[in-house]
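#help-structures
NK: newbie question, is this the right format to request a structure? protein is Radical SAM protein
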Amino acid sequence: MEYTIAKDRRSLTRRGVLWLGLKCDIKCKFCYDENVDKKDKLWLPLDDAKHALEKFRFYYENEYVDFMGGEPTLHPRVFEIVGFCASIGLRPTLITHGMHLADRKRAEAFKAAGVHDFLMSIHGIGENVARLHGRDVENFDRQVQAIDNLNALEIPIRFNCILIRDNLCDLSAIVELAKSKNVKIINFLTFNPYFEWRSAPEIPFQARHSEIMQYLGPALRLCNEYRIEANVRYMPICQLKGFESHAFTGYQLPYDVHEWDYNSWYDRGLNGQPSHEWYYSASAEQKARHSYIHTEKCQNCAARNICDGFHAQYLARWGAEEAVPYSGELISDPIFYIKQQAKHEYAKGSAPFPARAVEFGPLANITQFNGTDENRAGVRVNLPATRRK
Ligand code: SF4
């Protein structure tokens, strides 16, 4: 992977995201899509995917894209989509449970199609994985085989790990796995009560931030020791005391090159790369969109202008007693803490400069931007009957 280690500066992300559809062959405990009606779990047609990718590349000038599912490796035209993506200079990542890559031939086919890397969902270790996946199909063994296949093919891997009660004991072992398999980046994601979980007051597997930190703290220490980049997403900054350089709330996400560009993610319509000021206001909109709120304690916190605060559901469940405001001068630079993180940024590659002056209509009919609170492209409700396949 063509990485450079950056410190004291941060680049704006140039990464788009495209949901290829919500079909999946496991049932993760925390899945957002479990309650989506089966008839809406459709694969995005190839031509629509191409149109969206061209818009990402030639209008938004993105250089990378994440393919989301469901399980995107199961899309019937996935190799054509990946190949098209690579051909226009948009480097493709698949966010995957990875188990189908245990098949060496399938991994080789992704390599041949031009995949850039895989972001593997590693939520646990050993037998715990089958429990988390809700289906016992030699889950962890296949994931490890997949990692070995990708390493043999020199396809980079990053890890995603959702933080819930059921996997906290595995966090340090996940870091050890990453180290042993040459994985350089791990994203730890607080479980977000979005979508179908939004109105659930008592989610049994949801953990308090303080409970998570008993396990995440040692795991982050290990990451630092092993020089693994650890990004903790959606946790209030003060919950990561001593680890603030790893804290990525909605205000820091535009400066994580492994995260999504608010401009193309929501099809906001600004050609190319908007200004830092635009991303700051887009971050504030994201905070409101996802129901994060500042508590009373936040009102006097020096970090309040660069921190989302707590999720409304979280506060309703547990209150704000964990909040620990920062004293001192008001901080207004979103990268104030994260610029201290040693981050793997992409070295400038040889992707062709966008040259096509094509009119691009809105993505609303291709992806699922049905309302301001939606962010899962690829789910198309009210699809004409002829397209329901
Ligand atoms: S006190 Fe509030 S604003 Fe300050 S870091 Fe904590 S959650 Fe964020």
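mod (FA): yep, format's fine, and the tokens are attached above. The pocket of iron/sulfur cluster is lined by residues 236-238, 294, 297-298, 301, 303-304, 307, 309-310, 323, 325-326 (CB under 6 Å).
NK: thank you!
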